[in-house]
Amino acid sequence: MEFNIVMVLMMIVTFSYAKDWPTCAKLDDCSCNLTGVENSGIINLRSLVNGKHEPAFTVEGKSDHTNLYYNFSYNPCFNFTDYDCPETAVCQTGDGVQSYDLGNLNGVEFLYMDDVAKYIRTVYRSKYKDKYGQSRVSSVDLICDEYEEKGRFEYSGEPVVRYYQFKLYTQCACPGRCASSETLCKAKDLCSCEMSDGTGTINLHSLDNPTNPLRDQASPTNAFLYNPCSPMTNPQCYNSSLCEEKGDSLVPLGLAGSAKFVYNNNQLGLQYFGVNNTLSSVNLVCDHNRRDEPFFRAAGDGLTYNLYSVCACPNGCGGTPPSNGTCDQTDSCSCKSPSDGAVIDLHDLDNPYAPLTAEDNEGYTYYYNPCSGIKLQNPIGKCDGVAACQEDPFHNTWYNIGNNDPEINYNATSKSFTFYYTGGEGGRSFDVRMVCDRDSKAPVLAADGDIPKGATRYRLKLISKYACN
């Protein structure tokens, strides 16, 4: 039956390509850019949820196959946890029956439907499969209704087993009606800002490297250089974050101190003034596939550039554990309880070029990446590939404090699971205690420092929803 669902969706996509229909290019999980029609523009649903990670809409509907009534919950912008639906965008619940995840935001699709109504269809897929190996799929048709301010959510039916259809009538489905002109990113410093819609923080600090900036080699003799957080060290760049390389000379294009977070056509970017009062922009393009290395590219007009990186995503860089005290380790950053199936899984936090950071009370900074180690720029390269590194700002020294092969054990004193790392420089080691916080929007790394004082063993805490089962 799952084959039928896939076929329905493939037919929709195939027909759209065959007719060369207009498209709504995905901008993020709840917005897309509609082009190729008379009334083009941004469709943005973010104002309907106000930053809340909970169901924005709930409707009752009768199943076409079980003849029972269920409640269906939906959030178009954020995954939520409801009953037995962990981290889902669409959830089905009913009295005395099992709840079902009907699809989450990972991989959500926006499809332009060119029938009489001409609407956008969003498609969600569940990451969980039933005992038959089949997953559930939902679609929500976004219907433009200029008079519907809060949104009206309707259940349309289940035309195929495990494929659920809904309609959302809202003025935000009208192109340009709810585009995020009201959404701001309030600057914290030159290269980080806090999203006003509650989605989190944009933080580019891990990309800062003034001696070796990001580079777009436009031609053998011409290149564009970018360092988002501070001026490049080359004096020819004249206190600039953005420069053009012409042969053996450098031309400053954007002064670092002039950086300003702006929106242009619903795209967040950093804007810079040049030494000749020219205005350049770097679009910060959220790309979850760019976890290892950012990609910087000039747009072609000499004034616009694109930076593709997971660090351009909110919180991209920057619960209860298994009940019986046992968790069989599956790899370097996850484990599973053999009795109740509970899981601790830190893979979603893995980012070698943007490790989690914390500072202890003594002023030492710790960098930690739980799954694949870190790729950290430092003068002597000691942190390449290790699980954690310590920066000593008083002596400008870096130390590898643990390799990426931990043991995961239950700590009876703290009543939590702890990742223990060894193999650091000079016998250094560290441990990370998992602290479950289901409501956290971003992971927090805290450092207790050396335990006991003067030792070469260090203690950290990771506070995150991913530390929960």
Mean pLDDT: 82
Instruction: Please report the total strand number as a whole number.
Output: 37
Biggest sheet, strands in spatial order? Answer: 4-5-8-9-10-11-13-12
Query: By helix and strand content, what is the structural category?
Result: mainly beta
Largest sheet: 8 strands, mixed
Please give a structural write-up.
This protein is mainly beta and 469 residues long. The protein has 3 domains: 2-173, Distorted Sandwich (Cation-dependent Mannose-6-phosphate Receptor, Chain A); 183-312, Distorted Sandwich (Cation-dependent Mannose-6-phosphate Receptor, Chain A), CATH 2.70.130.10; 328-467, Mannose-6-phosphate receptor binding domain (Cation-dependent Mannose-6-phosphate Receptor, Chain A, Distorted Sandwich), CATH 2.70.130.10. It has 1 helix and 37 strands. The strands form 9 sheets. It has an 8-stranded mixed β-sheet with strand order 4-5-8-9-10-11-13-12, with helices on one face. A 5-stranded mixed β-sheet has the order 21-22-23-25-24, with no helix packed on it. Strands 33-34-35-37-36 form a 5-stranded mixed β-sheet, with no helix packed on it. A hairpin with a 2-residue loop joins strand 19 and strand 20. Mean pLDDT is 82; it is low at 6-20 and 319-323.
List the helices and strands and how they pair.
Elements: H1 2-18, E1 23-28, E2 31-35, E3 41-44, E4 57-62, E5 69-74, E6 80-82, E7 85-88, E8 90-93, E9 100-113, E10 119-129, E11 135-144, E12 152-160, E13 163-170, E14 185-189, E15 192-195, E16 201-203, E17 214-219, E18 222-226, E19 240-246, E20 249-255, E21 260-264, E22 267-273, E23 279-286, E24 295-298, E25 304-309, E26 328-331, E27 334-336, E28 343-345, E29 356-359, E30 365-368, E31 388-392, E32 397-402, E33 407-411, E34 416-421, E35 429-436, E36 444-450, E37 457-464
Parallel strand pairs: 11-13, 23-25, 35-37
Antiparallel strand pairs: 1-2, 2-3, 4-5, 5-8, 6-7, 8-9, 9-10, 10-11, 12-13, 14-15, 15-16, 17-18, 18-19, 19-20, 21-22, 22-23, 24-25, 26-27, 27-28, 29-30, 30-31, 31-32, 33-34, 34-35, 36-37
